[in-house]
Amino acid sequence: MVELLVNNYHINIYELDDNNNTVFHKICEKNDFNNKKLITYFKEKGVNINRVNKDGDSPLITLSKYTAISEAVPILLKNGADINIRNNNGETALLASCKYGYYDVSKMLIDCGADVNIPDNEGNTPLLVSCYKERFLHNKDLVEYLIEHGADINKANKNGRIPFHEIVYYANNCLINYFIDHEADINKMDNNGINSLKIARSINNEDCIKNLISHGAK
């Protein structure tokens, strides 16, 4: 059926749009995965499933930005999508899905072998962006899943910020204790000499301050 449409209507499946998006990008943007044969057909016809657009996004990265539906991930991977390819900002599909708080997609990517520690160009890891977004997107489960699957809990970005700094800033005492139990460096300073205790004091969170001091914060 697909082949008939392409041949009869002279559809150019290799044509790029103004942002260099391929047919795979468009499928991922619209989350149009109802017909798996469509993906296979385009792949067999030589459409590059890893071709990037002007932003450096591969179809898999595009998918991770536009949908929270995890079932689409293995369809792309089965057809040769590079799970750890990075865009112009250094973001992988996993980092993009964590940035948007898509737990199911992030979990699927991790289960399929995504590297949980690849940072973007600013040194932000999937764990760090998940902690930064935790206040708004309630990513507790995602944060814990990343750590349980090897995310470096003390990896800093170019500003010296680590995930624990963000957790303290958003005053999530439940995650603070979880991080401490998983050996977060509670006295690590960023490039401006700010550590977790100074962050807690800056937001006047007495419970957090007492909790940190009781665990050796200085």
Gross CATH architecture of the domain at 2-121:
Alpha Horseshoe
CATH first level of the domain at 2-121: which class?
Answer: Mainly Alpha
Broad shape: elongated
Q: Which secondary-structure class do the elements indicate?
A: mainly alpha
What is the terminal separation in angstroms?
68 Å
Total beta-strand segments: 0
Order of helices and strands: HHHHHHHHHHHHH
What is the CATH homologous superfamily assignment of the domain at 2-121? Ankyrin repeat-containing domain
Number of helices: 13
Quote the CATH topology of the domain at 2-121: Serine Threonine Protein Phosphatase 5, Tetratricopeptide repeat
Low-confidence stretches: none
Q: Tell me what portion of residues adopts beta-strand conformation.
A: under 5%
The Cα radius of gyration reads: 21 Å
- Estimate percent helicity: 40-55%
Question: Quick one: biggest sheet?
Answer: none
Mean pLDDT: 90
